[in-house]
Amino acid sequence: MDHRIEKMEQYAKEYHIPIMESDGIEFVLDYIEKHHIKNILEIGTAIGYSAIRMCLVHENITVTTIERDQERYELALQNISEFGLENRIKVLYQDAFSVELEETYDMIFIDAAKSQYIKFFEKFEKNLKPNGVIISDNINFHGMTHTKEPILSRNVRGIVRKLNMYIDFLKENPNYNTFFYDIGDGISVSIKQVK
Questions:
Q1: What b/e readout covers 27-56, taking b as 16+ CB neighbours within 10 angstroms?
Q2: How far apart are CA 127 and CA 151, in angstroms?
Q3: In the chain, which stretches have pLDDT less than 70?
Q4: CATH architecture for residues 20-192
Q5: Of the candidates 19, 6, 50, 5, which has an alpha carbon nearest to the alpha carbon of residue 32?
Q6: Which helix (H) or strand (E) holds 42?
Q7: Which of 72, 92, 143, 183 is the most exposed place for a label (fewest CB within 10 A)?
Q8: How far apart (Å, rounded) are the C-alpha atoms in residues 61 and 68?
Q9: What was the pLDDT predicted at 148?
Q10: How many C-beta neighbours within 10 Å does residue 106 have?
């Protein structure tokens, strides 16, 4: 493992910055490699960890990633430049809902505000190529989306309710074939159906 990646993982742990769990990121990297994915749109950069990892799968991969938090945005730029990936990772410092993109992508990766997943999906699916895939992380939300236990925090209850709505939205969406995986914190893979 590259020490720079370990350094990022350590930093995220220390400062409680949510990055993908290791088996989750491995699953996504494997998917990218197997399906020859070349260009990716990521909603939620954080410190650039997953964008960097995805780019390192193959030298012809490019990532456009969106981050609205200034501190994380600046940190992501630093990390990206440490890997010399400035030409392949474009970080947009904006709220995702104010971003308008013309390009289309092989893959869209959603890993941002959990309560907004449906909105992110609906906003950016027009940027997905035919046969493209939308991958979402944190579908299980620490196991809470399929627990019968009462959730004490009102805020967490709200997030779990919205995530469950998102899961139903994916299951019922006739334009996509969605598969759910109990890997990392839960991952969904929605493959666009060619009409």
A1: bbbebbeeeebebbbbbbbbbbbbbbbbbe
A2: 36
A3: 1, 141-152
A4: 3-Layer(aba) Sandwich (3.40)
A5: 50
A6: strand 39-43
A7: 143
A8: 23
A9: 65
A10: 18
